Amino acid sequence: MNYSKLLLAFFIALWITACGQTGPLYLPDGPAPIHVPKELPADIEPDEED
């Protein structure tokens, strides 16, 4: 296998693994798939930084 075919195979494999990784995780008008609270609950205090 010459270098051009090897390079082509590498970029095809890279492209296949990159498919779906750059798009949004959810539709812009829809809810996020994982709920992350915007504020901490009242009984949890934020960590203090030194």
UniProtKB/TrEMBL annotation:
For this protein, the record's Pfam families field holds: LptM_cons
Q: What are the entry keywords?
A: Cell outer membrane, Lipoprotein, Membrane, Palmitate, Signal
- The superkingdom of the source organism is Bacteria
Localization of this protein: Cell outer membrane
Membrane topology listed for this record: Lipid-anchor
GO CC, alphabetical: cell outer membrane
What InterPro entries does the entry give? LptM_cons
Looking up NCBIfam families in the UniProt record yields: SS_mature_LptM
Q: What is this protein called?
A: Lipoprotein
Species name: Methylotuvimicrobium buryatense (Methylomicrobium buryatense)
